[in-house]
Design goal:
Blueprint: H1 10-19, H2 23-46, H3 51-54, H4 59-68, H5 70-87, H6 99-112, H7 116-137, H8 153-185
Helix pairs in contact: 1-8, 2-4, 2-5, 4-5, 4-6, 4-8, 5-6, 6-7, 7-8
Keywords: Membrane, Transmembrane, Transmembrane helix
Length: about 190
């Protein structure tokens, strides 16, 4: 079955090659990807309408960075949060709990797991946890006014099913871009 197949060993080989880069090059790459993620996430605030379709792509730079190196990916995650604090503070409600957390989660899952289903489930659990914490703990209407702030198993199950599908898409997008960018970065 498609979901139970192993991901190729290209990611582990690229991670070993990435470790051979100089510290300066790793930091510059992490900072560049963090800036790219901040600009993509800020598009929702700067370009109303079309920007909301651009801002989910802020996951990709963090994800690619975390696929190459988890410490550099975490650094990029926090640097993006700092840049968003300066550029568009209103996006600080969304990025750390959804877009950024998804990138870090899937990137870390690529390091620890080999099967697609494991990677997808890890990302789905983290994304569901982030959305639920925004919705029920911080009472931020991340899903709009149609969803109540009171806990519901039906809403939580729907969020998890959406997160599974969304993570499957991101795993495939990450593999596509990883194969294209591997030779460019390393």
């Amino acid at each position: 079955m498609y979901f139970l197949r192993s991901i190729s060993d290209d990611i582990q080989v690229a991670q070993l090659q990435f470790r051979n880069l100089t510290k300066t090059r790793m930091l510059v790459l992490g900072a560049f990807l963090a800036c790219l993620a901040a600009v993509l996430q800020a598009a929702g605030g700067f370009l109303p309408g079309i920007g909301y379709f651009i801002s989910p792509f802020a996951t990709l730079p963090i994800l690619i960075c975390a696929m190459f190196s988890l410490p550099v990916g975490v650094m990029s995650y926090f640097l993006t949060i700092l840049l968003l604090f300066i550029l568009v503070p209103s996006e600080l409600n969304v990025f750390p709990f959804t877009t950024g957390l998804l990138g870090i989660g899937i990137g870390a899952a690529f390091s620890f797991f080999k099967k697609r289903v494991s990677i997808i489930f890890v990302g789905a659990i983290l994304l569901t946890t982030g959305i639920i914490s925004l919705l029920y703990i911080f009472r931020f209407p991340v899903l709009g006014p149609a969803v109540s702030y009171s806990f519901s198993y039906l809403t939580t199950g729907g969020i998890f099913l959406f997160a599974l599908f969304y993570n499957w898409l991101w795993v495939e997008i990450a593999l596509f871009f990883f194969k294209r960018l591997r030779g460019f970065i390393i």
